[in-house]
Specification:
Layout (H helix, E strand, L loop, with lengths): L7 H19 L4 H8 L3 H13 L3 E7 L7 E6 L5 E7 L3 E8 L4 E8 L5 H15 L11 E8 L7 H4 L3 H6 L5 H7 L5 E5 H12 L8 E6 L3 E7 L2 E3 L13 E4 L2 E4 L15 H26 L3 E6 L3 H18 L8 E4 L6 H15 L11
Parallel strand pairs: 3-6, 6-7, 8-13, 13-14
Antiparallel strand pairs: 1-2, 3-4, 4-5, 8-9, 9-10, 11-12
Protein backbone atom coordinates (compact mmCIF):
# COMPACT_ATOMS: atom_id res chain seq x y z
CA UNK A 1 0.00 0.00 0.00
CA UNK A 2 1.38 3.41 -0.95
CA UNK A 3 2.01 6.02 1.72
CA UNK A 4 -0.26 9.03 1.21
CA UNK A 5 2.03 11.64 2.70
CA UNK A 6 3.03 12.97 6.06
CA UNK A 7 0.87 14.34 8.81
CA UNK A 8 2.07 17.80 9.86
CA UNK A 9 1.04 17.27 13.47
CA UNK A 10 2.70 13.88 13.52
CA UNK A 11 5.87 15.35 12.01
CA UNK A 12 6.10 18.04 14.66
CA UNK A 13 5.60 15.56 17.50
CA UNK A 14 8.11 13.19 15.92
CA UNK A 15 10.73 15.94 15.68
CA UNK A 16 10.19 16.98 19.30
CA UNK A 17 10.64 13.39 20.42
CA UNK A 18 13.69 13.05 18.19
CA UNK A 19 15.35 16.05 19.83
CA UNK A 20 14.55 14.83 23.36
CA UNK A 21 15.82 11.36 22.57
CA UNK A 22 19.04 12.76 21.10
CA UNK A 23 19.69 15.02 24.11
CA UNK A 24 19.10 12.10 26.47
CA UNK A 25 21.47 9.76 24.64
CA UNK A 26 24.15 12.47 24.24
CA UNK A 27 23.80 13.52 27.89
CA UNK A 28 23.52 17.12 26.76
CA UNK A 29 24.03 18.74 23.38
CA UNK A 30 24.18 22.06 21.58
CA UNK A 31 21.74 23.05 18.84
CA UNK A 32 24.44 22.55 16.21
CA UNK A 33 25.21 19.04 17.51
CA UNK A 34 21.52 18.19 17.50
CA UNK A 35 21.17 19.36 13.90
CA UNK A 36 24.06 17.10 12.86
CA UNK A 37 22.80 14.09 14.79
CA UNK A 38 19.13 14.33 13.78
CA UNK A 39 19.61 15.62 10.20
CA UNK A 40 17.02 18.32 10.91
CA UNK A 41 17.69 21.80 9.57
CA UNK A 42 19.43 24.22 11.95
CA UNK A 43 16.36 26.47 11.81
CA UNK A 44 14.04 23.60 12.79
CA UNK A 45 16.32 22.59 15.67
CA UNK A 46 16.45 26.15 17.01
CA UNK A 47 12.65 26.40 16.94
CA UNK A 48 12.07 22.99 18.56
CA UNK A 49 14.71 23.43 21.27
CA UNK A 50 13.39 26.87 22.18
CA UNK A 51 9.84 25.47 22.45
CA UNK A 52 10.99 22.53 24.58
CA UNK A 53 12.89 24.91 26.83
CA UNK A 54 9.80 27.09 27.20
CA UNK A 55 7.77 24.01 28.15
CA UNK A 56 10.33 23.12 30.82
CA UNK A 57 11.49 19.90 29.19
CA UNK A 58 14.97 21.21 28.39
CA UNK A 59 17.20 23.70 30.17
CA UNK A 60 20.47 25.49 29.44
CA UNK A 61 23.06 23.52 31.40
CA UNK A 62 26.38 25.07 30.39
CA UNK A 63 28.43 26.94 27.82
CA UNK A 64 31.04 25.09 25.77
CA UNK A 65 33.99 27.09 24.52
CA UNK A 66 36.52 26.23 21.85
CA UNK A 67 36.98 26.95 18.18
CA UNK A 68 35.78 30.04 16.41
CA UNK A 69 32.72 32.08 17.22
CA UNK A 70 30.49 32.33 20.26
CA UNK A 71 30.47 29.63 22.98
CA UNK A 72 27.85 26.93 22.34
CA UNK A 73 24.96 26.54 24.79
CA UNK A 74 24.51 22.97 26.01
CA UNK A 75 20.95 21.79 26.64
CA UNK A 76 19.98 18.96 28.93
CA UNK A 77 16.81 17.16 29.96
CA UNK A 78 15.08 18.79 32.93
CA UNK A 79 15.06 15.94 35.43
CA UNK A 80 12.75 17.86 37.77
CA UNK A 81 9.90 17.66 35.28
CA UNK A 82 8.61 14.40 36.76
CA UNK A 83 9.36 10.91 38.05
CA UNK A 84 8.73 7.34 37.03
CA UNK A 85 8.86 4.05 38.89
CA UNK A 86 10.38 0.97 37.30
CA UNK A 87 9.69 -2.55 38.51
CA UNK A 88 11.45 -5.71 37.37
CA UNK A 89 9.56 -8.82 38.40
CA UNK A 90 12.13 -11.60 38.46
CA UNK A 91 11.86 -15.26 39.22
CA UNK A 92 13.74 -14.87 42.48
CA UNK A 93 13.42 -11.18 43.37
CA UNK A 94 11.64 -7.92 42.64
CA UNK A 95 13.68 -4.76 41.97
CA UNK A 96 12.12 -1.28 42.08
CA UNK A 97 13.71 2.02 41.07
CA UNK A 98 12.64 5.67 41.12
CA UNK A 99 13.85 7.72 38.14
CA UNK A 100 13.59 11.41 37.38
CA UNK A 101 12.60 12.74 33.95
CA UNK A 102 16.24 12.56 32.85
CA UNK A 103 16.43 8.87 33.75
CA UNK A 104 18.65 9.39 36.80
CA UNK A 105 18.16 6.95 39.66
CA UNK A 106 16.81 8.54 42.84
CA UNK A 107 16.08 5.38 44.84
CA UNK A 108 16.54 1.62 44.46
CA UNK A 109 15.00 -1.24 46.43
CA UNK A 110 15.41 -4.97 45.94
CA UNK A 111 13.27 -7.69 47.50
CA UNK A 112 15.05 -11.02 47.26
CA UNK A 113 13.36 -14.26 48.16
CA UNK A 114 11.08 -16.85 46.71
CA UNK A 115 9.14 -16.84 43.45
CA UNK A 116 6.79 -13.82 43.65
CA UNK A 117 3.01 -13.59 43.58
CA UNK A 118 1.10 -10.70 42.01
CA UNK A 119 -0.14 -9.54 45.42
CA UNK A 120 3.42 -9.53 46.76
CA UNK A 121 4.63 -7.39 43.87
CA UNK A 122 1.79 -4.90 44.37
CA UNK A 123 2.56 -4.61 48.10
CA UNK A 124 6.24 -3.97 47.42
CA UNK A 125 5.49 -1.26 44.86
CA UNK A 126 2.89 0.45 47.06
CA UNK A 127 5.32 0.53 49.98
CA UNK A 128 8.11 1.91 47.77
CA UNK A 129 5.91 4.72 46.41
CA UNK A 130 4.65 5.64 49.88
CA UNK A 131 8.19 5.86 51.19
CA UNK A 132 9.99 7.66 48.39
CA UNK A 133 7.39 9.95 46.88
CA UNK A 134 6.56 11.25 50.33
CA UNK A 135 10.18 12.18 51.00
CA UNK A 136 11.65 15.63 50.58
CA UNK A 137 14.12 14.49 47.95
CA UNK A 138 11.61 14.04 45.12
CA UNK A 139 8.46 15.69 43.93
CA UNK A 140 5.10 14.57 45.21
CA UNK A 141 2.96 11.79 43.80
CA UNK A 142 1.27 14.18 41.35
CA UNK A 143 4.55 14.27 39.41
CA UNK A 144 4.62 10.47 38.96
CA UNK A 145 4.27 9.97 35.20
CA UNK A 146 3.69 6.24 35.29
CA UNK A 147 4.95 2.85 36.38
CA UNK A 148 6.91 0.53 34.12
CA UNK A 149 6.73 -3.22 34.67
CA UNK A 150 9.37 -5.50 33.17
CA UNK A 151 9.05 -9.26 33.47
CA UNK A 152 9.67 -12.41 31.43
CA UNK A 153 6.73 -13.19 29.16
CA UNK A 154 7.08 -16.80 30.32
CA UNK A 155 7.63 -16.09 34.00
CA UNK A 156 5.99 -19.33 35.10
CA UNK A 157 7.85 -21.63 32.70
CA UNK A 158 10.94 -23.73 33.40
CA UNK A 159 9.31 -24.97 36.63
CA UNK A 160 11.84 -27.76 37.18
CA UNK A 161 14.75 -25.32 37.13
CA UNK A 162 12.95 -22.98 39.56
CA UNK A 163 11.45 -25.60 41.84
CA UNK A 164 8.01 -23.93 41.90
CA UNK A 165 4.52 -25.43 42.04
CA UNK A 166 1.98 -25.55 39.23
CA UNK A 167 -0.23 -23.07 41.12
CA UNK A 168 2.62 -20.56 41.40
CA UNK A 169 3.33 -20.85 37.70
CA UNK A 170 -0.30 -20.67 36.64
CA UNK A 171 -0.86 -17.28 38.31
CA UNK A 172 1.53 -15.71 35.79
CA UNK A 173 0.14 -17.64 32.82
CA UNK A 174 -3.32 -16.10 33.01
CA UNK A 175 -4.38 -13.64 30.31
CA UNK A 176 -5.36 -10.99 32.88
CA UNK A 177 -1.93 -10.55 34.53
CA UNK A 178 -1.47 -7.02 33.12
CA UNK A 179 -5.03 -6.07 34.11
CA UNK A 180 -4.51 -7.33 37.66
CA UNK A 181 -1.28 -5.38 38.02
CA UNK A 182 -2.75 -2.21 36.50
CA UNK A 183 -5.74 -2.46 38.85
CA UNK A 184 -3.35 -2.16 41.78
CA UNK A 185 -1.95 1.21 40.63
CA UNK A 186 -3.42 4.70 40.54
CA UNK A 187 -1.10 5.63 37.66
CA UNK A 188 -0.70 4.41 34.07
CA UNK A 189 1.29 1.19 33.80
CA UNK A 190 3.53 0.20 30.90
CA UNK A 191 4.57 -3.41 30.35
CA UNK A 192 7.59 -4.88 28.59
CA UNK A 193 9.60 -8.06 28.38
CA UNK A 194 12.48 -7.92 30.86
CA UNK A 195 15.12 -8.48 28.18
CA UNK A 196 13.75 -5.65 26.04
CA UNK A 197 13.64 -3.38 29.09
CA UNK A 198 17.28 -4.12 29.92
CA UNK A 199 18.24 -3.41 26.30
CA UNK A 200 16.37 -0.09 26.45
CA UNK A 201 18.31 0.84 29.59
CA UNK A 202 21.61 0.07 27.85
CA UNK A 203 20.51 2.12 24.83
CA UNK A 204 19.38 5.25 26.66
CA UNK A 205 21.66 5.41 29.71
CA UNK A 206 24.01 2.44 29.69
CA UNK A 207 26.89 0.98 27.70
CA UNK A 208 25.02 1.28 24.39
CA UNK A 209 24.37 5.02 24.20
CA UNK A 210 26.79 5.38 21.27
CA UNK A 211 25.62 2.25 19.43
CA UNK A 212 22.95 1.57 16.83
CA UNK A 213 23.00 -2.23 16.61
CA UNK A 214 23.75 -4.48 19.56
CA UNK A 215 22.68 -7.51 21.55
CA UNK A 216 22.24 -6.93 25.28
CA UNK A 217 22.88 -10.06 27.35
CA UNK A 218 21.54 -9.91 30.88
CA UNK A 219 22.71 -12.69 33.21
CA UNK A 220 20.28 -13.16 36.07
CA UNK A 221 18.42 -16.09 37.62
CA UNK A 222 17.86 -17.02 33.98
CA UNK A 223 19.92 -15.52 31.16
CA UNK A 224 17.95 -13.10 29.00
CA UNK A 225 18.54 -10.68 26.20
CA UNK A 226 17.29 -7.81 24.13
CA UNK A 227 18.07 -6.64 20.63
CA UNK A 228 18.68 -3.08 19.38
CA UNK A 229 18.66 -2.47 15.63
CA UNK A 230 18.92 0.95 14.02
CA UNK A 231 18.98 2.67 17.41
CA UNK A 232 15.64 1.16 18.50
CA UNK A 233 14.72 -1.84 20.60
CA UNK A 234 13.58 -4.55 18.18
CA UNK A 235 10.73 -6.36 19.87
CA UNK A 236 9.77 -8.90 17.25
CA UNK A 237 6.28 -10.06 16.35
CA UNK A 238 5.45 -11.27 19.86
CA UNK A 239 7.69 -8.88 21.80
CA UNK A 240 10.14 -11.69 22.47
CA UNK A 241 13.07 -10.93 20.14
CA UNK A 242 16.44 -11.55 21.74
CA UNK A 243 15.05 -14.11 24.20
CA UNK A 244 18.31 -15.94 24.69
CA UNK A 245 17.30 -18.45 27.35
CA UNK A 246 15.86 -20.86 24.79
CA UNK A 247 18.59 -20.36 22.18
CA UNK A 248 20.09 -23.72 21.17
CA UNK A 249 23.79 -24.03 21.92
CA UNK A 250 26.45 -26.70 21.87
CA UNK A 251 28.30 -26.82 25.16
CA UNK A 252 29.80 -29.46 27.44
CA UNK A 253 29.89 -31.77 24.39
CA UNK A 254 26.12 -31.79 23.84
CA UNK A 255 23.26 -29.79 22.35
CA UNK A 256 21.19 -27.90 24.91
CA UNK A 257 19.71 -24.47 25.64
CA UNK A 258 21.64 -21.41 26.81
CA UNK A 259 19.53 -21.19 29.98
CA UNK A 260 21.28 -24.24 31.42
CA UNK A 261 24.80 -22.79 31.07
CA UNK A 262 24.59 -19.00 31.49
CA UNK A 263 22.03 -18.63 34.29
CA UNK A 264 22.75 -17.95 37.93
CA UNK A 265 20.21 -20.51 39.16
CA UNK A 266 22.82 -23.12 38.16
CA UNK A 267 25.53 -21.45 40.26
CA UNK A 268 25.29 -22.02 44.00
CA UNK A 269 25.86 -18.76 45.89
CA UNK A 270 28.12 -20.65 48.28
CA UNK A 271 30.03 -22.39 45.52
CA UNK A 272 33.77 -22.68 46.02
CA UNK A 273 36.33 -21.22 43.64
CA UNK A 274 36.55 -24.42 41.62
CA UNK A 275 32.80 -24.62 41.06
CA UNK A 276 32.62 -20.95 40.10
CA UNK A 277 35.46 -21.42 37.64
CA UNK A 278 33.74 -24.43 36.07
CA UNK A 279 30.46 -22.51 35.73
CA UNK A 280 32.24 -19.52 34.19
CA UNK A 281 34.03 -21.73 31.67
CA UNK A 282 30.78 -23.37 30.55
CA UNK A 283 29.05 -19.98 30.45
CA UNK A 284 31.73 -18.60 28.12
CA UNK A 285 31.54 -21.66 25.88
CA UNK A 286 27.76 -21.47 25.58
CA UNK A 287 27.68 -17.68 25.11
CA UNK A 288 30.33 -17.91 22.39
CA UNK A 289 28.04 -20.28 20.49
CA UNK A 290 25.03 -18.00 21.01
CA UNK A 291 26.90 -14.83 20.01
CA UNK A 292 28.29 -16.49 16.88
CA UNK A 293 24.79 -17.55 15.86
CA UNK A 294 23.22 -14.15 16.57
CA UNK A 295 25.95 -12.14 14.90
CA UNK A 296 26.01 -14.35 11.83
CA UNK A 297 22.40 -13.32 11.25
CA UNK A 298 22.55 -9.69 12.36
CA UNK A 299 26.13 -8.38 11.90
CA UNK A 300 26.09 -6.39 15.14
CA UNK A 301 28.34 -3.60 16.35
CA UNK A 302 28.63 -4.99 19.86
CA UNK A 303 27.42 -7.42 22.48
CA UNK A 304 26.85 -5.90 25.92
CA UNK A 305 27.22 -8.20 28.93
CA UNK A 306 25.57 -7.23 32.19
CA UNK A 307 23.57 -8.72 35.02
CA UNK A 308 23.35 -9.62 38.67
CA UNK A 309 26.74 -11.26 39.07
CA UNK A 310 29.99 -10.15 40.72
CA UNK A 311 32.06 -7.75 38.60
CA UNK A 312 35.05 -10.10 38.67
CA UNK A 313 33.03 -12.91 37.08
CA UNK A 314 31.62 -10.51 34.48
CA UNK A 315 35.20 -9.49 33.68
CA UNK A 316 36.17 -13.14 33.25
CA UNK A 317 33.23 -13.84 30.93
CA UNK A 318 33.90 -10.77 28.78
CA UNK A 319 37.60 -11.57 28.50
CA UNK A 320 36.83 -15.22 27.82
CA UNK A 321 34.58 -14.27 24.90
CA UNK A 322 37.20 -11.91 23.49
CA UNK A 323 39.83 -14.65 23.71
CA UNK A 324 37.50 -17.14 22.04
CA UNK A 325 36.85 -14.88 19.07
CA UNK A 326 40.56 -14.10 18.71
CA UNK A 327 41.27 -17.78 18.00
CA UNK A 328 38.01 -19.52 17.08
CA UNK A 329 35.90 -17.10 15.03
CA UNK A 330 34.68 -18.36 11.63
CA UNK A 331 36.79 -17.08 8.73
CA UNK A 332 33.90 -15.03 7.25
CA UNK A 333 32.88 -13.45 10.53
CA UNK A 334 33.06 -9.82 11.69
CA UNK A 335 33.64 -10.08 15.43
CA UNK A 336 31.43 -7.70 17.43
CA UNK A 337 32.91 -5.64 20.23
CA UNK A 338 32.38 -7.30 23.61
CA UNK A 339 31.38 -4.63 26.13
CA UNK A 340 30.70 -4.82 29.83
CA UNK A 341 27.61 -3.04 31.08
CA UNK A 342 27.59 -0.94 34.24
CA UNK A 343 23.93 -1.22 35.26
CA UNK A 344 24.30 -4.59 36.94
CA UNK A 345 21.25 -6.16 38.52
CA UNK A 346 19.09 -3.04 38.07
CA UNK A 347 19.23 -2.96 34.25
CA UNK A 348 15.73 -4.41 33.84
CA UNK A 349 14.20 -2.16 36.49
CA UNK A 350 15.85 0.96 35.02
CA UNK A 351 14.55 -0.02 31.60
CA UNK A 352 11.09 -0.46 33.10
CA UNK A 353 11.31 3.00 34.63
CA UNK A 354 12.20 4.42 31.23
CA UNK A 355 9.07 2.93 29.63
CA UNK A 356 6.72 5.84 30.56
CA UNK A 357 9.30 8.28 29.16
CA UNK A 358 9.92 6.13 26.12
CA UNK A 359 6.20 5.85 25.38
CA UNK A 360 5.62 9.61 25.47
CA UNK A 361 8.91 11.15 24.42
CA UNK A 362 10.58 8.80 21.92
CA UNK A 363 10.24 9.07 18.12
CA UNK A 364 7.46 6.97 16.60
CA UNK A 365 7.81 6.56 12.85
CA UNK A 366 4.16 5.52 12.53
CA UNK A 367 3.07 8.97 13.74
CA UNK A 368 4.57 10.56 10.62
CA UNK A 369 2.13 9.14 8.15
CA UNK A 370 -1.51 9.75 7.45
CA UNK A 371 -3.79 6.78 7.87
CA UNK A 372 -6.14 5.49 5.24
Amino acid sequence: MMRKGTNAGGMRRYNERLILSAVRRMNGASKAELARMTALSPQAVVRIVDELEEEGLLFQAAKRTGGMGQPATIYRINGKRGNTVGVEVGRGDTTIVLLDFDGARKAVCRHAGSFPSIDTVLRHVASFIDEHLASNTVQNAEALMGIGIAMPWFLGEWRDELGISMDQADEWRRADVADRLQAGFAWPAFFENDGNAAALAQLLCGAGVDLQDFLAVNIGTFVGGGLVLGGRVHQGRHGNAGALASMPVFAADKSDYLIHYASLYALDQDANAGARSAWTKQCIEALAFAVTSANSLLDLEAVILDGALPPAILDDIAEGLRSHFCTDAPPDFFVPEIRKGTLGGVAGAVGAGLLPLHASFTPDLASLFKKG
